């Protein structure tokens, strides 16, 4: 029997998920106004343009000032990124996307320009930074977002070792001897962020359930008021009035995201496919630079030759017709990897091709990776901008997942992959990384214990090399458990709705249930300890019909037979209510809409029902 017309009426008061947030732009502007720190609002073109123009006019900034100012620029870029990611599609107009991305690119360009100007300013007084032992300039500056290393060949001694190690950072390089007698400087600017790769395309459609114009969306209303007295008679007849779910025929948008760009296939094996791979640990700008004339003391006067040419790169290998067919020694490079990222496999070293605007692997050779020392060495045939590339889908498909409530509007979300166990805590509308366990050891302690938004948490984990968030192209590189959008997306909505009092977990039978059905384990859970195996029940949901299965997780074969003394329901919420205690129902009724939205955001970001 399918119960739909006479389902019990649960009265709740919020619409999920399509209208779940207020205007992000207005909220962002209000938060910015309340900060009162004098920084511009990046979403306002006049303010951000004024900010950039004023810094553009400022000259001779030293490197310490640029690093400090750069942190403010990075904060502005993060705010724009957050607006692009968090604003609902119906509020994000195409001209707004263009405006935000143009501002991001302009800020990135200005920041790198300022690093070049500060480098030139520093090299003009390289003599003052001469090392007492080698006589050459060595400067290392480390900040939370950037590591700046520069070496200048002041002595030009051919007998001096061409292998330079900057011991403070364990970064180093081995210069060819042909360069040892020239006015050359080498800069390793390690930005812990990536401002080199192309900006990601912002989709015009998101994964969601839609309804025809003439029909309402799946709507769940929340209020905390008790039922009116005149409805008591209806309650006595067995029609409990907690939930009112308005549900008409549901039309589901395709899972593919609509884009205006035609997908280009990559035929060159040396080109890195950024849909499949991703840079991790930032970008290393390794540049050979011409050393500007140094100041000289002559009869009490300080004299210096001034050249108005800006920061000049040192050409290597030299470009000339006579040496076109000549071969030049490679440059050896040793890099210390960040402690704030994890490489689960040996990374691929790639160089940036500015002409083709792509990462390439040719021109790099003799790579040696020391995982315990977090160090990588390689040789390159010229000076390049370098990134360490990792497979973006290492953690997919997941091995298991679990949602387990452990307090009021609070739960623990666990995703287990082949390499790590990731635990995320959700409380109210905030979430945090509880732990990442790799081979029995906890990692990324700098990220754990910090409350943030779901969007910010996903960005932070991706940057740290822990990508458990499928992209629009992930299904091409991962063997996914295909499910229809109606089943998958509606399940996430309903799981989030009752997650305050019920635990959910992965089931092996989800692989056998077909594309139109999702299967998962369910258990009422009002305590904080782990769920016992015997407390789990199996539920199957199609988006329009829910049922409790007769089989268990240990059964020998899959069967969609209905559990005895149970019946079909049109929603998962009503199905679970048949077996729920009064305490659990009351907890569901009192759940915060912000908590429900946070749970939904993480479920739709990880897509555990198709990527497990």
Automatic annotation (TrEMBL):
It comes from the Eukaryota. Pfam families: Casc1_C, Casc1_N. One of its GO terms (cellular component) is axoneme. One of its GO terms (molecular function) is microtubule binding. Residues 21-159 form the IC97/Casc1 N-terminal domain. InterPro entries: CASC1_C, IC97/Casc1_N, IC97/Dnai7-like. Residues 358-522 form the CASC1 C-terminal domain. Belongs to the DNAI7 family. This is Dynein axonemal intermediate chain 7. It comes from Pelusios castaneus (West African mud turtle).
